[in-house]
Amino acid sequence: MACKRVLFLDLSWGISGDMLVSALADMEVDFSDLVSSLEQKLKVKIEFKNFSREGVLGKKLEIRLAKTHKNRKLRDLLDLLSSLELSPELFTTVKEALFKLARIEAKIHSQKPEEVHFHELGGEDILVDLVLALGGIEKLGVDKVMASPLPWLQGEVEIGHGKVPLPAPATLALLQGKPFSGRFLEFEAITPTGALLLDWVVDGFSKAPQGTLLSQGVGFGTWDKGFNGLRCFLLEEEMALEEEEVYLLESNVDHLSGEELGEVFNTFLQAGALDVLFLPGLMKKNRPGGLLQVLCPPDKLAPIQSLFFKTTFTLGVRIRLERRVVIKRWIEKVSTSYGEVRLKCFQLPDKKQWRIEAEDIKAVARQEGCSFLEAKKLLEEEVGLYFFQQKMGS
Question: If both were cysteines, with which of 3, 53, 100, 256 could 260 make a disulfide (CB 3.0 to 4.6 Å apart)?
């Protein structure tokens, strides 16, 4: 059974850069090499302190700066980033994240990205947060990051341009397309850096984690309002895979026309073959031909083998027993305004996927007098709405 490592972020009390870093530290991620480089090059002191709030023990990041610069531009941050000893992959990731934040700030203030002053985000602390958070997730070796829906924010916050309503403009821009839970908090529980990390690393959202729990961590923020902590969970998910045996029958053929090959395909599939493939090539005496392959389940081996000789007149067939791993799948029927259609469904760890049977798409195309692609688009819109309504109803 194949497994995936998944990091799940519980965003009930928001997210900030230091909260994510602290939660990763509480999960015992080894930051020693990154901390050493940051402290040496940026002249900062970084500590992870044990901290308790509401009776829950976790970690809290403390950054002490020799000198704070609150109005750095993008170029200043990139120069600082270049001085750090990071892997090429982590350097590129942090650089691209900074560029994204600069583009958002520039759009908000009608400036060019290189002209933006980051104000409260412009100090060395944003680099500490990004390097440790993105580097920590890299160290965990996770296959994906999932998160819970977000709380909404109410109130106002002071930024470099004055007081603004929450969520702050840059935060709000980064939260486009993200789901909210309907719960609200009356303080800046989601910071711009937190929103940037959320937008950058999260692959999807769900109400609860799924899988076997491996470890957990709690990282606390600076606000002393409620819990104000980010809980992170490392899980192992099992893919919905099944292992089975199949037979592969193959033969080199150079004596069948295109029409004859087409009929051979139909005959094999009607007899229960799982798949049929023809790979064209040049054979002896420079004659055009190819490799004809037929895949079948064990219980169909004898009739498919007999059919191979009967339909192709080949003089020999090679047979191999193969093992394959397949995702569990099934057929569902859905009623649409164009009639009932069949869906080939399969389950991945994070969601159910589906494909409309091609024969049903062809039937709708004939019925509506449109192309196959047009019929496919019409049906996918209706089927997508059906599953969305199902999800909302649950």
Answer: 256
